[in-house]
Amino acid sequence: MQCYPGLVLALSSLLGALALLQLSLYLRVPSRYGKHEERLCRPRGRLPARCAWFLQELPSFLVPALLLALRSPPRLEPLGCRLLCCLFCWHYFYREAFITPNFVSSTIANIHEEGIFSLEGYYLIYCAEYPNDWCTDIRFTSGLLLFLLGMGINIHSDLLLRQLRKPGEVTYKIPQGGLFTYVSGANYFGEIVEWFGFAIATWSLPAFAFAFFTLCCIGPRAYHHHRYYLKTFTDYPKSRKALIPFVF
């Protein structure tokens, strides 16, 4: 397999268009799952949450891993490219495909588009060209720091959410601690920071398109979570923002 720049550009543009479509669809009306699901009119044909989460994210880990393993000659240089590939696969191994699904507590979940996008993996393995000193470039180091910061926020916020309810409980509670002190969607904020950090570290169109898609996909989710909390809990902190601390 070889790199097709035209294909990369076309798919990146498509991803940006899908991001705008997501934003237009779900900014006014939340996607119907989790706390926003219509309990009395539950659609049929939906998978259990753990199974759905695993299936939707598995391709994003397997496809880049297989492309990397099957590439001939192997992609061994430069070090910066190897690190970026490892970061991408690590995210989907730990956060999405194998570890996090074991902690999903919802009974059902929708399958999103995110799991089918392996454009970033293809670009890094077959198209990306970095100088040998890319690891010392300010874009790589700053992007890596943002990526790790976002992942830390994301994992810590998910841990706080899992601790809200005891086994068997189904009622929603007010998230407390960590970045939830400042925003209702702390886990979403961490995810967005993570992928924009990755985009800066790779300095590539596919990565920025994917970061924009992530923002448009889960940003509205955080906004609707915030509105839900304000409507449901009279004692919900009024100073807490929806997604960006002190801003929005």
UniProtKB/TrEMBL annotation:
<keyword id="KW-1133">Transmembrane helix</keyword>
<feature type="transmembrane region" description="Helical">
    <location>
        <begin position="195"/>
        <end position="218"/>
    </location>
</feature>
<dbReference type="Pfam" id="PF02544">
    <property type="entry name" value="Steroid_dh"/>
</dbReference>
<dbReference type="GO" id="GO:0007548">
    <property type="term" value="P:sex differentiation"/>
</dbReference>
<keyword id="KW-0221">Differentiation</keyword>
<keyword id="KW-0812">Transmembrane</keyword>
<keyword id="KW-0560">Oxidoreductase</keyword>
<dbReference type="InterPro" id="IPR001104">
    <property type="entry name" value="3-oxo-5_a-steroid_4-DH_C"/>
</dbReference>
<comment type="similarity">
    <text>Belongs to the steroid 5-alpha reductase family.</text>
</comment>
<protein>
    <recommendedName>
        <fullName>3-oxo-5alpha-steroid 4-dehydrogenase (NADP(+))</fullName>
        <ecNumber>1.3.1.22</ecNumber>
    </recommendedName>
</protein>
<keyword id="KW-0726">Sexual differentiation</keyword>
<feature type="transmembrane region" description="Helical">
    <location>
        <begin position="6"/>
        <end position="27"/>
    </location>
</feature>
<dbReference type="InterPro" id="IPR039357">
    <property type="entry name" value="SRD5A/TECR"/>
</dbReference>
<feature type="domain" description="3-oxo-5-alpha-steroid 4-dehydrogenase C-terminal">
    <location>
        <begin position="119"/>
        <end position="248"/>
    </location>
</feature>
<keyword id="KW-0472">Membrane</keyword>
<feature type="transmembrane region" description="Helical">
    <location>
        <begin position="140"/>
        <end position="161"/>
    </location>
</feature>
<dbReference type="GO" id="GO:0047751">
    <property type="term" value="F:3-oxo-5-alpha-steroid 4-dehydrogenase (NADP+) activity"/>
</dbReference>
<dbReference type="GO" id="GO:0006702">
    <property type="term" value="P:androgen biosynthetic process"/>
</dbReference>
